[in-house]
Design brief:
single chain; about 375 residues; alpha/beta; TIM Barrel; 8-stranded parallel barrel; 13 helices; 13 strands; binds beta-D-glucopyranose
Length: about 375
């Protein structure tokens, strides 16, 4: 038996755009539906979690999980610059209250990749006052998190946002594999946004941001290249979390780096529906690195999971990842919780086929079907042990 610390949070995570459906005022929706869109599939009705969140929350609580991480959508709450939709803010407050009524600790993400169309039209994270605009939104959102919310993630995977902006930069170097180099000015603006948002949130909640970790592996003799690849992508964002209440670690796979940059998984590696290597040890690597680089900021695993149609493999993956996580705790890393990505089979940013969910969702009836992996994780949560 591997027992986890008392009060360890066991949860599942989702984001607004990937589950709610009809997030029509967001930049991503606009890109999905553009005539010349490069995005293969649209989000449409999503999982209709906008209306069905009580069912989602009840299912998670019934499984034995103790927490739910979900995102709020800036584009619904502030659909036009300076216009606050009180009704939409109330909607998200009801989600918080639904969690509390079901005995789940809510963890709220303020920004999970999407911004309102008006913000995008201003240049998004390139705008010189993007940080202030986000801080203003945080202020608007305060009533959602004021009572009963202990955990707030400001920005989800700022490093991936910066990479996306890096990819859009016409002067960017060609990418060997995977992500473009993070856009430096955007990276810095995101740090400013995070800091301002934390100030707005104040001491009443625990706030932090969540970093996509890559478990970077250098090919022999390429240690320097790997370090140069890794720093602007990962350590830069972990350093910015020093002094925060927690740092969110999100881990899925590893990345090999050779002379010319990142490399695809080895030909003989098992890969998942996203094409990533099956590599559950990535979680412990990401956690140790976050703990080291932040200088001992408490860690929450805010995302970890696998895109697979083979649910038994999801259990294997999660068991291995949690075994590694338990080792980090035994070594002395202060880990406060584990959130599986994802609660639902949801919209994987352009595609529906990579199924990450503990719960399947019928795309037309929206019927939810609990998978064996969800029951398995619920049992782990109930026992607080592997
Ligand atoms: C993101 C999620 C995404 C998941 C799997 C993370 O990058 O936060 O939105 O669905 O990983 O790709």
């Amino acid at each position: 038996m591997r027992t986890f610390p008392p009060g360890f949070l066991w949860g599942a995570a989702t984001s607004g755009h990937q589950t709610e459906g009809n997030n029509v005022n967001s930049d991503y929706w606009q890109r999905e539906y553009a005539v010349d869109s490069e995005i293969p599939e649209v989000s449409g009705d999503g999982c209709d979690s906008f209306h069905r969140y009580p069912e989602d929350i009840e299912l998670l609580a019934g499984l034995g999980l103790t927490s739910y991480r979900f995102g709020i959508e800036w584009s619904r709450i502030e659909p036009e610059r300076g216009h606050v939709s009180i009704a939409m803010r109330d909607h998200y407050r009801r989600m918080v209250e639904c969690c509390l009524a079901n005995g789940l600790t809510p963890m709220v993400t303020l920004n999970h990749f999407t911004v309102p169309r008006w913000m995008d039209a201003l240049g998004g994270w390139h705008h010189k006052h993007a940080a202030e605009l986000f801080a203003r939104f945080t202020e608007i959102a305060l009533p959602i998190v004021r009572d009963g919310v202990e955990w707030v993630c400001t920005i989800n995977e700022p490093n991936i946002i910066a990479c996306r902006e890096g990819a859009a930069d016409p002067s960017a170097e060609p990418v060997t594999y995977g992500m473009a180099r993070p856009h430096l000015a955007v990276s810095k603006e995101l740090v400013r946004a995070h800091r301002l948002a934390r100030e707005v949130l104040g001491g009443g909640v625990r706030s932090g941001w969540t970093v996509a970790t890559q478990a970077i592996h250098a090919l022999p003799g390429c240690e320097q290249e790997a370090a140069e690849y890794s720093y602007p992508l990962e350590e830069f964002f972990l350093e910015a979390a020093r002094g925060d209440d927690f740092v969110g670690v999100q881990a899925y796979t590893r990345t090999f780096v050779g002379r010319a940059g990142a490399l695809p998984p080895p030909a003989d590696a098992e890969t998942t529906l996203t094409g990533w290597e099956y590599f559950p040890a990535a979680l412990a690597i990401g956690v140790r690195n976050a703990w080291k680089v932040t200088g001992g900021v408490p860690v929450v695993v805010t995302e970890n999971g696998i895109a697979t149609a083979d649910d038994a493999r999801r259990i294997d993956y999660t068991r291995e990842a949690l075994t590694g996580l338990h080792e980090t705790i035994a070594e002395g890393v202060d880990v406060r919780g584990y959130y599986h990505w994802s609660a639902l089979d949801n919209y994987e940013w352009g595609r529906w086929s990579p199924t990450f969910g503990l719960i399947a969702v019928d795309r037309t009836s929206f019927e939810r079907t609990v998978k064996p992996s969800a029951k398995w994780l619920g049992e782990v949560a109930r026992a607080n042990a592997l």
